[in-house]
Amino acid sequence: MNFNPLDLGDITGYQKWREQKVRLYDKAAHLNVIDIKGDKLTKAELSNLKSACDRFNYSIYRMQKPELGSKQFVHETGLLLGLKRLDGNLCSDEDNITSIQVMSSGRHSVYIPYTDKKLTWHTDGYYNADDRTIRAMILHCVRPARTGGENLMLDHEMAYIQLRDENPLYIEAFTQANVLTIPPNIENGKEIRAAKTGPVFSVDPISHTLHMRFSARTRNIEWKDDSLTEDAVACMRGLLNENNPYVISYRMQAGEGIIANNVLHNRTAFTDGEEKRLLYRARYYDRVDEVVSRKS
Ligand SMILES: [Fe+2]
């Protein structure tokens, strides 16, 4: 990204970037699924994954031998992509890679990801403190549901473009430091996560790329109380559906996965078969490394 997305004055820089970005999508390469032969990425596979993340902020892979998919595979793949700093959370397994499946009791069961209900659109960690900003994630499917459980995704840079096309002031609204507050998480009367207030759009100080913090949920969320913010949120919500040509819907099969620079995503409701749907999820404080040739 060679312009500042928060500087609405740099119209030439924006137009150039916008044109390049839209052109990439015109070729529909964002729908490609990258084949992975074994459980150690080859140079070509690695380069394909990085290149897709460079262009679309996500990549989808398919292991030719799904039975080789494991937490170790997720961990090693992450490292090869430059994803070193794993985020732990209340529900992570010991190795900080979370097993996501329906849990009927215990701490997990009160959180929507551990149910078969739909998950509304969001970027990961929108409630996190700044020192735990989630910049990338890997979702690896061990077992799909019997029905449902699709993931829809929208590259947050395309969401930025679509919002700005509609009204540049929406970008201004979303860069306000107090535009979005998530109230604290209180469990049994004890605060386990503080309230978090911050912008929707920011520029990541490390990678100088656009970062987005968003949730489409309607409860336990406080938007700044002004009409421009209200309109921007309504516009954003309007973009989050399958009629948007930049939204993709993908239902992962066993051995398939999504690697993303924390794009907007959701999950549809699902029905488990005899064996439960199982996903491994790793969240990182790093972004996927850029393709080497672009750095030089
Ligand atoms: Fe998520």
Which key phrases capture this entry?
binds fe (ii) ion, 7 helices
Would you kindly provide a brief summary of this structure?
This protein has 296 residues and is an alpha+beta fold. Helix content is 25%, strand content 25%. It has a single domain (11-295), classed as Clavaminate synthase-like (Double-stranded beta-helix), CATH 3.60.130.
Structural features, described:
The protein is of the alpha+beta class and 296 residues long. The chain has a single domain (11-295), classed as Clavaminate synthase-like (Double-stranded beta-helix, 4-Layer Sandwich), CATH 3.60.130.10. 25% of the residues lie in helices and 25% in strands. It has seven helices and 19 strands. The protein has a six-stranded mixed sheet with strand order 1-2-16-5-19-3. Strand 1, helix 2 (43-56) and strand 2 (58-63) form a beta-alpha-beta unit. Helix 4 (156-166) crosses helix 5 (168-174). Bound molecules: fe (ii) ion. Fe (ii) ion (FE2) is lined by residues 122, 124, 265. The site of fe (ii) ion (FE2) has 3 residues, from loops.
- The coarse silhouette is globular
Largest sheet: 6 strands, mixed
Counting structural domains, the number is 1
Q: Which architecture does the CATH hierarchy give at level 2?
A: 4-Layer Sandwich
Strand content: 15-25%
Helix content: 25-40%
As a whole number of angstroms, the C-alpha radius of gyration is 19 Å
Please tell me the overall pLDDT: 93
CATH superfamily: Clavaminate synthase-like
Please provide the ordered H/E string of secondary-structure elements. Answer: HEHEHEEEEEHHEEEEEEEHEEEEEH
- CATH hierarchy, class: Alpha Beta
**Annotation, overall tally of beta strands:** 19
CATH topology: Double-stranded beta-helix
